[in-house]
Specification:
Elements: H1 2-41, H2 43-46, H3 82-85, H4 93-101, H5 103-106, H6 120-132
Helix pairs in contact: 1-6, 4-6
The protein binds heme C.
The site of heme C has 28 residues, from helix 2, helix 3 and helix 4.
Length: about 130
């Protein structure tokens, strides 16, 4: 009797682990798809931005590799607008999302001339892609 209930417990534990793991796989897959979509969407930024670790190539805009956790307008070697330098925030998901909607909402006189992205899913994918670059 004792052994039987033990086995039952083990079986239900395994089942719980499997059921618990399934959404994690699904989530990882969704994240990977989002990053891949964001990478494609980055074509819209690539005319002005690189996203390459340590690159010193100066395009119209700054290198966006390692953006998350960095202060706005602070990448050494790039000549930012005084407005973005003075903005005084650190890049995170919410800030980048807002920036993609309308850069001038965060820095009124920014030199990034950009038609905002109205599609929230596109912004989310781009955020996921840039966040994946560490
Ligand atoms: C036409 C050129 C151009 C395009 C296209 C463009 N940017 Fe920019 N971007 C700039 C410039 C110029 C700056 C510097 C702004 C300043 O100093 O005020 C900038 C700044 C930024 C910054 C601030 C970086 C920092 O270190 O503070 C982010 C983030 C950014 N761009 C993201 C993007 C993303 C994502 C896209 C594509 C959806 C994009 N940009 C498209 C020109 C562009």
């Amino acid at each position: 009797m004792q052994r039987k209930s033990g086995r039952l417990l083990l079986a239900s534990g395994l089942l719980a682990a499997l059921v618990g793991a399934a959404p994690a796989w699904a989530q990882a897959e969704a994240d990977a798809a989002s990053v891949a979509r964001g990478k494609r969407l980055f074509m819209r930024c690539a005319a002005c931005h690189e996203a390459v670790a340590g690159s010193k190539l100066v395009k119209t805009g700054p290198n966006l590799h390692g953006l998350f956790g960095r202060s706005a307008g602070a990448l050494p070697g790039y000549q930012f607008s005084t407005d973005l330098k003075a903005a005084g925030f650190v890049w995170d998901e919410a800030k980048l999302d807002a920036w993609l909607v309308k850069p001038t909402a965060l820095a009124p006189n920014t030199t990034m001339a950009f038609v905002g992205m109205t599609d929230a899913a596109e912004r989310k994918a781009l955020v996921a892609f840039l966040r994946s670059l560490k």
